[in-house]
Amino acid sequence: MFYDNNFLAFHDLSAAGLFLWASSSVTHFLQYDPSEIVGMSPFSLIHPDDLEACRVTHKEHVLNEIVGTHMSFRLRRKDGSYAPCMIFGCLCYQYIISCYSFEEEVNERPRKPIVHGVHSAVMTRIVGSEKEEFERISRNHNTLKSDTWNPANLQLELRACLLLNRFSRNITIMYASPSCELIFNIDPDELLGKPLLLYIRADDLGNFVDQVDQVKSSTALRHIRF
Description:
This protein is of the alpha+beta class. The chain is 28% helix and 23% strand. The longest helix is centred in the N-terminal third of the chain and has 16 residues, at 48-63. The two termini are 27 Å apart. InterPro entries: PAS, PAS-like_dom_sf, PAS_fold_3. It comes from Entomortierella chlamydospora. Residues 13-65 form the PAS domain.
């Protein structure tokens, strides 16, 4: 379950998963200014009892190019207190995009962090031969054998990220990752402020809008081909 209380963050693909950016709402929940948290590792904020499981999950996330991971654990605020939260993380080519959702009141916390679900990247791969894919994955496994790794040595599936305005009927694009230019041959800046629906083929449009409406009215995750 996701809550309305949340902040969004981008992390790098290093073993430390450093914060690259955090939305302004991080201040409300963790008491840090967004500029303070950039360059910090989330592992420095995770409860000691939750730390090892979170490190393992992060490594598996990068290793297997997971589309989505749900996990519950505790994060330390600036004043030293801990906030129970749920994270949804998605690996998008150059970084991990995470939404941290917080519970307002908790009477009892689990002794161990809970992984609620993992969404495989299998269905996203639509190009390349099986031999090339196997070789690419093998190289990534070799890179991540140690507890530290160089993200520059990873050969990850090319993916693009769009952050969309859920309150707009046309689903306005609020952010487009640099990889949009590699995939769509469109400058990411040209996409900002435009409706995503402008870029969807006409015969896919009805099904796409129906499924997005279902997502907008719930906390569901959905894979849509279009």
